[in-house]
Amino acid sequence: MISLKKFFFFWLAVAAVQAKKELLKDNHSKCVLWAIQGECETNPGYMHQHCQTACLATDNHSKCLEWAQRGECDINPKYMLHHCANSCNRVRSEAEL
């Protein structure tokens, strides 16, 4: 059985992650596209204020783009959206063009 103390710390961790997600947001529908095009580095003043989520998306594996192009973002979203967020966002943005 889980102790009350462990449950409390788990709840705090979940609340902190949710609060961070609510604070970070993209204020424009083209944020992901701009981030892919390098605007987070070229125009950091605007992008880091208005496209926070898109600029924080990263890939943690060298095969992320290959996997995303094969549809793994939809097949295995739990892994891909955590470890390959940049590639998933890129493939989805390219599909919308």
UniProtKB/TrEMBL annotation:
Protein name: ShKT domain-containing protein
InterPro entries assigned: ShKT_dom (IPR003582)
Highest taxon above the source species: Eukaryota
Key word Iron-sulfur present: no
Every ShKT domain range: 55-91
Taxonomic source organism: Fistulifera solaris
Record bears the keyword Methyltransferase: no
Signal peptide: 1-19
Entries under SMART domains matching the protein: ShKT
Keyword annotations: Signal
